[in-house]
Every structure is written in C-alpha cells, then in structure tokens.
Design goal:
By secondary structure, this protein is of the alpha/beta class. It has two domains: 7-32 and 285-393, Aspartate Aminotransferase, domain 1 (Alpha-Beta Complex); 41-282, 3-Layer(aba) Sandwich (Aspartate Aminotransferase, domain 2), CATH 3.40.640. It is built from 13 helices and 15 strands. The strands form four sheets. A seven-stranded mixed beta sheet has the order 2-8-7-6-5-3-4, sandwiched between helices. Strands 11-12-15-14 form a four-stranded antiparallel beta sheet, with helices on one face. Strands 1-13 form a two-stranded parallel ribbon. Helix 11 (332-341) packs across helix 13 (376-393). 48% of the residues are buried. Bound molecules: pyridoxal-5'-phosphate (PLP). Pyridoxal-5'-phosphate is lined by residues 93-95, 118, 120-121, 162, 166, 191, 193-194, 214. Keywords: Pyridoxal phosphate, Transferase. This is cysteine desulfurase. Its cofactor is pyridoxal 5'-phosphate. Residues 26-382 form the Aminotransferase class V domain. It catalyses: (sulfur carrier)-H + L-cysteine = (sulfur carrier)-SH + L-alanine.
Length: 394
C-alpha cells in the first residue's frame, strides 16, 4: 500500500499523470467517468500483453501467476474499502451489482428507494418484481432520513440509497440509514458509485449490508465493479456457467462458495488488475486529501455561480464533488454545447435520474463534477464560458 502524498494535489502536477487530459481541455464530467492515470493504463497493457493468461483454470505457470494477481487485486480492493476479500465480488459495475441483489435476493418484497436515485438503483428493483416505495428529499436535496424512519414498516425488507447523489452531490449519513433500516428488519444497500472516488469508505464502519460501485468512476477501467456484502453466502447464485460451480451433473449442480459463485464465466481479469492499480493511485494521494480538494473546488464554484442572477443552484452546500445548476431561459444542452466550444466539458441532461428531474421541475440540469486532477483553472474556464452563454442568449 503506497503512503499517501497529498502534496501532489497542492502542487498541481497531477494532470501530467493523465494522458487523456489534453492541454486546454477542462474536463468537468468525472461523475460520468473518470480519466485514467498512466499507472492504470500501464497495468492494463501489461495484463493484456506481457502477463496475459486466464485465471482459475490453467495448470501452467503464467495462468497460476495471473490467478495470484487477480486474487491479489481482490484483496487490494477489499482493503481499500475496509472489507474482507471473501466479501468482495467482481461485477461489471454498480448496475450489475444492484441487479445481482435485486434478482437473487430470496425475499423480493418491498424496497424503499429515494427520490434522487440513479435509474440503475430503480429499474432493477422494478424488473425483479419488488414493490417500490419512495423516500422524499429535504429542501436542500438530501435523502430525508426522518421521513424514511416514518415510511419504513416491518413489511420492508430492503432500503437502497445512494451514498452520494450523482446529480446533487448530496452525501448520505449511511450509519444512520443503516440503523433506521435495521430497526424494522430491513437490509440496506448502498449505491456507492459517486462516494468511493471522493470520500473515505469503510464498509465495516458504515454498517450497511450491501455496497456497490463501479471501477471506471474510481480512475479504473470500464467493465469492472464491486459488490461488497458480508452476507453474500445468503444469496443464491444469480448467473450460471463456468467457474461458479462446485460439481455439475445433469441431475444436480452444487455451487462454489461466495464470492466465486457470483463470478460465472471468465472474469474481467485485465480490468480487475487495472482497478487494483487505480486503488493504488488513489491511495497514493489519499482519499481524505482528494475529498478536501473537491470540497474546496465545490465551494469556489458554488460561490461564483451564486453571484449570477441567471443561475439556479441545486443540491446542498456540502455536496461532494458535484454541482448541478440551470440558467434561466437556456436549455442545459445549449449550455453544454457552447461550453464545449471553449474546451469545457460538462454533462447536460437528466443524468439517468428522471424522477429527480420531475421532482426539481426541470427536464434537465447542467452538471460540473470534479476529480483528483480538477483545479481552479477549470472553475475559471467554466465561469468564463457561462458568461459567454449569457452573452449569446442575453
Ligand atoms: C449514483 C450512480 N449509481 C449508479 C451508476 C451506474 O454506474 P454504471 O453505469 O457504471 O454501472 C452511476 C453512473 O453514473 C451513478 O452515478
């Protein structure tokens, strides 16, 4: 585990680690997907080239080495979130993690979601046949846990909330949510997609039952993510195939213990090694330092946006790394297109959160989101670009 070196953020040299960050380009869409540091690119190139072989099957040395590397990646990623390796299942991403729980859970009953959830924490529950209830938000756009406490009944067997909203940046008090869910006998699934890259996460301390996240938002590759749970053994297998079995006959099949039983087929070997390299990269700076860095960028951007009469800001003051806004009389897509002409990349749209858009009374918002490489120049470029939008539409 590397020792954290937060000074790299202060010195501003971190951008040189990211070949995707071309000069003059202001990337403010890290909540959609993070740019990749060279260390992650190198790890995936080596895993796909020099070191490539399958895992868990080969009797030859290269495959045995790759199996060790794949399982070491699991240990590395587990340690990063305070977990035991056997409780970490590799999946394609948060979407697949939530589908896995929604479909394989033996008691598909009532689930309490919140108004701010990403579609990937709504649709799987609907498709798998759960009865969905919705928890409202506080005035500043956080999940209203007082309301959750009143809404929950012993009929609920699941609560599924985002740790950080991908639209509003609202952070959740997970420990409190866990207490509220457990009091009525429900389990708590946390969608940690936007939290893991920007907040220190220790699943043991959080007290939730399931924690899901995607590697590509944590500076790792696409096609890999994590479902953590200390009750994986209570879930029956979800997808069947090679690797997840103990013994197969035409009459009866028995399954491998978790987490292997959830990893049917040849796994995302290259991506798992890439994600472990991403975890090394993030820990080399320190998640606490990344959080502090993003907090200061959010404060600066929110303050400058608040000075503009044309702008409506959404989400709480303490939003984690993400700022959503709209401009009077201008569609967010037009904002995004004009900003792009000045080399500023933001996200404009419903952010896969249509129920939240309906709640906010808008079809879409503009969203700027920060990462480890974001800096004051990016904020200044966004503010200059918005002045240009105002001139064009003014
Ligand atoms: C809060 C949240 N949950 C879930 C997802 C889905 O992640 P993925 O598409 O990587 O599965 C996202 C992606 O934007 C997200 O922001």
């Amino acid at each position: 585990m590397p020792s954290p070196n937060p000074s790299r953020l202060r010195e501003g040299d971190i951008r040189s680690d990211f070949p995707g960050l071309t000069r003059g380009w202001h990337y403010l869409d890290t909540a959609a997907t993070a740019q990749k540091p060279q260390a992650v690119i190198d790890a995936t190139v080596n895993a796909m080239g020099r070191d490539y072989a399958t895992v868990h099957r080969g009797v030859y040395a290269r495959s045995a080495d790759m199996t060790l590397a794949y399982e070491a990646a699991r240990r590395r990623i587990a340690a990063f979130i305070g977990a035991r390796e056997n409780n970490v299942t590799f999946v394609r991403g948060a979407t697949e993690a939530i589908n896995l729980v929604a479909y394989s859970h033996p008691k598909k009953g009532r689930v309490l979601l919140s108004m701010l959830e990403h579609h990937s924490n709504i649709v799987p529950w609907q498709l798998a046949g759960w009865q969905v209830d919705v928890c409202p938000l506080t005035a500043d756009g956080c999940i209203d846990l007082d309301a959750a406490e009143k809404l929950l009944t012993p009929e609920h067997n699941m609560v599924a909330f985002a740790h950080v909203s991908n639209v509003l940046g609202s952070p959740l008090d997970v420990a409190r949510a866990a207490g509220i869910a457990h009091r009525v006998g429900a389990e708590l699934l946390i969608d940690g997609c936007q939290a893991v890259p920007r907040l220190p996460v220790d699943v043991a301390a959080l007290g939730c039952d399931y924690y899901a996240f995607s590697g590509h938002k944590l500076y790792g590759p696409t096609g890999i993510g994590v479902l953590w749970s200390d009750k994986l053994d209570t879930l029956p297998p979800w997808q069947g195939g090679g690797s997840m079995i103990d013994r197969v006959t035409f009459e009866r099949t028995t399954y491998a213990p978790a987490p292997t039983r959830f990893e049917a087929g040849t796994p995302a070997i290259v991506e798992a090694l890439g994600l472990a390299a991403a975890v090394d990269f993030v820990e080399g700076i320190g998640v606490g330092a990344i959080h502090a860095h993003e907090v200061s960028l959010v404060a600066s951007l929110r303050e400058q946006l608040a000075r503009k009469n044309s702008i409506t800001l959404y989400g709480p003051e303490n939003s984690a790394g993400i700022v959503s806004f709209s401009m009077a009389g201008v569609h967010p897509h037009d904002i995004g297109t004009i900003l792009d002409e000045s080399g500023v990349a933001i996200r404009a749209g419903h952010h896969c959160a249509q129920p939240l858009m309906e709640h906010l009374g808008v079809p879409a918002t503009a969203r700027a989101s920060f990462g480890v490489y974001s800096n004051d120049d990016d904020v200044a470029a966004l503010i200059d670009g918005l002045a240009r939008v105002e001139r064009i539409f003014g």
